[in-house]
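Thread: Newbie trying to understand structure tokens

Hi all, I'm a second-year student working on a class project, and my supervisor (Dr. K.) asked me to get a predicted structure for one chain before our next meeting. I've only ever worked with sequences, so writing a 3D structure as a token string is new to me. If someone could post the tokens and maybe explain what I'm looking at, I'd be very grateful. Here's the chain:
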Amino acid sequence: MNQNAIIITHGLLYTDEAKTAHGLVRDTSRYQILGIIDHVSAGRDVRDIVSQAPRPIPIFASLSECLSQLDEPVSYCLVGVAGHGGKIPPGMIETVQEALNSKLHIVNGLHEFMNDIPELARLAENNGVTITDIRRDKPKEQLHFWEGDIYGVPALKIAVLGTDCNLGKRTTTRLFLHALRQADIKTEMIYTGQTGWMQDNRFGFIFDSTLNDFISGEIEAAIVQCYREAKPQVILLEGQSSLRNPGGPGGSEFLVSGQAKQVVLQHAPGRKYFSGYEHLKAEIPSLESEIELIQMYGSEVIGLTLNTESLSLDEARQYQQRYQQELGIVTLLPLYDDFSELINNLHPLL
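---
Reply by user tm_fold:
Sure, no problem. This is what the structure looks like when written as tokens:
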């Protein structure tokens, strides 16, 4: 069976709810993405919508149109959206049904499990295909408590955190991973979300489908397994949400339980309020205070990476220059810059 795949985004490709699709068209070694189903953006190329997408991928209005126009057979249909609450978007079920009847395997990263929908489960069985619900929680007997084994991992552990959610932390982590490997530094990444799994990272777990009691232990277990099996010099940790987003204050586990003493911090200078809480006017604290908070945890921000949301490239460059001068921290636009300066600064730590 080939690993050729299409992605369904149900009219949301141009929004940040399609961050799973954006990540997959930029970088995945698990699947070969051949097309995207999105009726709103149909007829365009993905590079018109996803900044710095590396290659052309056509966008189709319907599944039938996609399958009839592609030159290669397809085996997988990936759900490319991850909206607030992880619900299946209204109307997407019909496309999933069509995909199952076309004998495509479904890979779903939403919190709403498609295997639990009787009609979809029946169609999958009748057509001899599978539905993979990535966020289904692991059996409790497979989960780990924190044990302290992390202190026996000598690899440099770097957490890629953010001042908010939906900033591109995973994308930055993958770009940093590739840059370190190209510099002949043996590096692995710990994925912590469904898109990281779809991109075929080898080590990790799904942060937001793990019982809270076990998150610290799962972080430690993933890092320990990674070091024992791959012996990397550097382990990158994909952060989730932010230290102070009220809807998901994650991050401290990576610093404390994962013992990441270095941090690359992602920030969106054009964003004022926490994502999803604009109506509450919940302001994102200053970048300076976030750096200070990370220092209070005993870790150091060694690099800043900027999301250019709501900014022109010139405006983003101005913020980049200002932060680098005022804070004395290497500052990058990860989709546009190479990581050489940041990597050079790592060498004394290796």
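A couple of things are worth pointing out once you decode it. The first helix runs from residue 19 to 26. The mean pLDDT is 96. Feel free to ask follow-ups in this thread.
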